[in-house]
Amino acid sequence: MTIGEIDPRYGDPSATPPPWPDIERLLTGAQLYWIVTVRTDGRPHAVPLVGVWHDGAFAFCTGAEEQKQRNLDANPSVAVTTGSTGAGGWSTGTDVVVEGTAVRVTDPPALRELAAAWSAKYGDDWRFEVRGEEFVELSRSGGATEGGARVYRVAPAKVLAFGGGHGQTRYRF
Description:
This protein has three helices and eleven strands, in the order βαββββαββαββββ. The longest helix is centred in the middle third of the chain and has 15 residues, at about 110-120. Strands 1, 2, 3, 4, 5, 6, 7, 10 and 11 form a nine-stranded antiparallel sheet that branches. The protein is globular. The chain is an alpha+beta fold. A hairpin with a 2-residue loop joins strand 4 (about 50-55) and strand 5 (about 55-65). The model has no long low-confidence stretch (mean pLDDT about 90).
């Protein structure tokens, strides 16, 4: 079982770490995420995207010509964020940051499983079929993916959760 540890340097040392199942529920239920990749010149690149938390990792897809794909070609390190801290005031909500390495998923059965996870989560807004080693969008929600979308999985190296009385919780894997 994954246990969170409050980091007293960055928040209230008396804060209680959220149980990992609560953090996983937040990651699973989020409708929108932000991903931060690293440009070839070292600058960060942050964009919103849809994705799924599936089997203990975050999955997302990107077109071959998108900036995040070019960034991943040079450096697969990413941070993925989601949450709601501050939406209802300082003392409400939880934000989560997943840090890890984006690894391309090319296995057709694994891609079909992820496509089913997207469909189960987003319905007709984000439906994909698997062609070769990529997703092809059937719903047209994402715009131009005629050439297919590459799928990536980010197993967490570290997860940070912020909220609950200004606490920072670190989960290690």
